[in-house]
Amino acid sequence: MKRFQLDNRGAALVSVLVVTTFITIIAATLLYTAAMNYQQKQMDYYNKKSFYETEKALDELKSVLVKDVQEAYIIAYNKTIGEFLLQGSKRQEYFQQEFMKAMWEIWKVRTPEQPLEAVKSVMEGAYAGEKNYFYKVEGIGVYQTETGPEDAKVKQQKFALKGVQVKYTYKNYTTFLYTDICIEPPMLVWAESSGTGAEFVEREKIAFTDCVSYVNWRKADYENSEDDEYKSIDIGTNISLPVAPTP
């Protein structure tokens, strides 16, 4: 019995098996952790790729709208200068009306009665690759809001692409972006004379990109429903273009 208890033959094999099992468990744990980290990073990359490609489509459209703002500004500015003395204190209001008319004329030839097709029609050339990311546009037109006290309300107008919805899918990961795109005319300080010195310098400081902004912007990983809360900020009432103010 004593001889049997002191016999340690095979103990080395048991020790090797225990150590091997322990190392295998650690290695499997490390491999699993590494695989999970890789999978999470891959998912994060796919999500970001989907988001940035969707956002790119909106940014490309915004660059087109900035060009429209420049064109509308030149038209409205020249018309206002032509009516400079007659309009007096209503020059900015007159400029605003002419700016909105110019924007509407630019978009009227793009068939705004079909807003989605109108937007896709401008996504050509360098922007053509993103045109199919747009899948819904609720409306295109001039919207008006009123601010100030009841007895002295100030009417402000903006040209807007309302309810623009964009989506992009990458590796089965889809991003939806919803927004209204609002375009407001530059605010100009009209001098009492139509000189070209300091006034021209002021014109050069205008940042046309600031005239185009996203309102009600929202990201989602699902398609928007009709009653979704992203419309909670009202951009104003859709209006027919009024006649420019008389002096």
Indicate the topology.
Elements: H1 2-5, H2 11-82, H3 84-87, H4 91-108, H5 115-122, E1 134-136, E2 139-147, E3 154-170, E4 173-183, H6 198-204, E5 212-220, E6 237-239
Antiparallel strand pairs: 1-3, 2-3, 2-6, 3-4, 4-5
Helix pairs in contact: 2-4
Order of helices and strands: HHHHHEEEEHEE
How would you classify the helix and strand content by structural class?
Answer: alpha+beta
Rg over CA atoms: 31 Å
Shape: elongated
Strand content: 15-25%
Number of strands: 6
Q: Ranges with pLDDT <50 over ≥5 residues?
A: 243-247
Reported for the largest beta sheet, the result is: 6 strands, antiparallel
Average predicted local confidence, pLDDT: 82
The count of helical stretches stands at: 6
The percentage helix is 40-55%
Alpha carbon gap, first and last residue: 123 Å
What structural keywords apply?
247 residues, alpha+beta, 46% helix, disordered C terminus
Explain briefly what this protein structure is.
The chain has 247 residues and is of the alpha+beta class.
General description of the model:
The structure is a single chain. This protein is of the alpha+beta class. Helices cover 46% and strands 21% of the residues. The protein is built from 6 helices and 6 strands, in the order αααααββββαββ. Strands 1, 2, 3, 4, 5 and 6 form a 6-stranded antiparallel beta sheet that branches. A hairpin with a 2-residue loop joins strand 3 and strand 4. Helix 2 crosses helix 4.
